[in-house]
Write a structure and sequence with these properties.
The mean pLDDT is 77. Helices cover 48% and strands 0% of the residues. It has helices at 2-33, 56-65, 72-78, 85-97. It is flat, with a radius of gyration of 32 Å.
């Protein structure tokens, strides 16, 4: 299934390249006619960036199964959810070195005078 999609994408890319060359001719003619410059011989390269369809679950399982065989840096580079391998590996190293700080439980407790009862509304002058 993915190979058919890839072949279709190749064909569409070739058609777009041809269309972009025709559009570029019109742009060059307009710039030359309006006196803004003649770019007739200038080479323009149009690049189409395509994402490749992959089965992420399979790739992640392959990464998990490669622990101990490949270096950690290689596994992190191959993981599909990691966009910046250098930053990700340094962050995971600092997490391993520094344990999460434990906070005392009383920081989250309510003050003693408010515990177990609701605040009563204040009487305001002019209200009944």
């Amino acid at each position: 299934m993915y190979s058919d999609i890839d072949l279709d994408a190749n064909g569409i890319e070739m058609e777009f390249q041809a269309s972009m060359e025709e559009l570029l001719w019109f742009v060059n003619q307009h710039l030359a006619n309006t006196g803004r410059g003649n770019f007739e011989g200038t080479e323009v390269k149009v690049i189409f960036d395509r994402d490749v369809l992959i089965n992420e679950t399979e790739v992640i399982n392959n990464c998990k199964n490669s622990v101990g065989i490949l270096s950690d840096e290689t596994i992190v580079k191959m993981h599909p959810w990691v966009s910046d391998p250098g930053r990700s590996s340094s962050a995971s190293r600092t997490k391993r070195r520094r344990p999460w700080p434990t906070l005392p439980g009383r920081l989250y407790e309510k003050p003693a005078e408010r515990r177990g009862r609701l605040r009563q509304p204040r009487d305001r002058p002019g209200r009944r």
